[in-house]
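User: Hi! I'm working on a homework problem where we have to compare a predicted structure to a textbook description. Could you give me the structure for the chain below?
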Amino acid sequence: MKTTLPRILFLQLPRLDNDSRGIPENLPMAGFYLRHSLEQAQVSHEFRFLTPEEEDLDDHHLLKLILDWKPDAIAATLYLWNIERTLHVLRKTRRHLPAVNMIVGGPEVAHRHPFLYKSRVPDMAVVGEGEPVFPSIIRALCGGVFPNFARMALKIGKSYVWGNEPVPGVCLNRSLPPPDHPGWKPDSHGMAYLETSRGCPLGCIYCRYAQFRRQISFLRAAEVKKHVKILIDRGAREVRFVDPVFNANPEFQEILRALLRLNSSRSIAFFAEIRADLLTPDEISLLAEAGFSEVEAGVQSLDPLVLRRIHRPVRFGPLEKNLHLLFDHGIRVTIDLMYGLPGQSMGDVETSLSWAWRFRQAHVQCLQTLLLPGTELAERHRSWKTRADHVPPYGVASTSTMSREDIRTIEALIHDKSPADCMTRRFVGTTLPDLFKKKIPIPADSVKSLSEIPGFTSRRALIVSGEDLYAHRQSILTIIHRAILSEPHMLWQFVMKPAEEEPLDLLDEMVAAIRSHPFHWMDRFASVNSWNRVASRRIFILLKNSRSYSPSWVVAAEKLLEDHFY
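Assistant: Happy to help. Predicted structure tokens:
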């Protein structure tokens, strides 16, 4: 055991998506809190975060960065969108650094996870809040005794042993870094995040947020004001409150008044998730005056029986009235609905969607229910005959009251009304608006001689150009296979830039090459999988402005690619 403090790398891999227009989000709060817990416990440490540029690396270059820094401990936060990739990177790291200590936490860590412990990758796994546990773990790595907390699993041999001692509670006011801490700052786009409550007044059976917490811990209005002022002073242009129910805070009105005083010029935009049915007219006015440009309101279903079953109360009379008031005050509202809930019928989903779409100013999102590990829904899925994948995103594929065909029908209904933001807009054209920022040109006559796939980012477009691409098809197929095998967790775009019309057989063979590989987690969502499409690896055709192509060939190529890719 080491007698000096290990070097700690905090690893939180970002969610990759196909949105070439959006701003990437990877909230650094978990690592920020963990580092502060060490500072509070007076545990000296060398703590390293990935920079935004490093977060954009593919796995090969990320591994090289980790090996160059040689951490003694890696603290990784696991979400459904990064757990497979993180375990992949940690497994490779272990081969080169066998003594590194790997600690995992986050929403994916549950007592009965379908594959986390079978992987035998982490040395320690922490369920729930990590701040009260982390300092004890780091002290143990320095030569102390490992804690025996009930929500911590320690790998011994080839199995994991859970502790039995209670975990100390977390008071948010004492746990959060103080307002003047240098870690409180917006990202490069001016976006900042703040948590003003820990815990949730709701007990939704599909969610893990409220697990292991008997009480909710709130920041007082004065503390919220201090934190927001610091963020504004440090350049924040938007502050997003990450609480599950922002208006659950007993000092909600005082917080709004404090924000109004800070934002009298309306130069800052605020966002929060709320229970819209509990708002008063005065609170809605204060939200608008304080600068809340958008709120999110969870409704999930209009069926009272379904809502009781999932422990999600909604008062529909006040809800409708308050939604209209929010719109009247110029506040954009996202209405959340779900499908695949226990006992939910097709009729309920259709009725809920029709109701929500009547609010023309609202953004409506109807989300597939996920059977997240550790939730009550996952524990009781057999009683509701809920079927879902055992790998992310754990999407519910059918229930006792909803078939696979029903779910496809719902996805079609949603798509017809409001196509998803990340759907490809065009596969063939002289301009392709969905191409990734990192574009790598590859002349067709040099494809065969490539010793490695060029580039280093996690979202990459390989553009193969030249005469008679069909003659180079074997080399092109080899590139596809090598790219996906070398980086199975990143997003690929294979772009053909032909001098003239190429046989559509080339596209068919490229599609078959992509489909011969296991699905990426993005491809398992019902919005993609129900149509037998692929979202993570796509084919495009970039036409040359200087050439004339047969319109019928362009249409046929576009249709072929639309049929296979999302």
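For your comparison, note the following. The domain at 7-162 is CATH 3.40.50.2300 (Rossmann fold). The mean pLDDT is 94. Good luck with the assignment!
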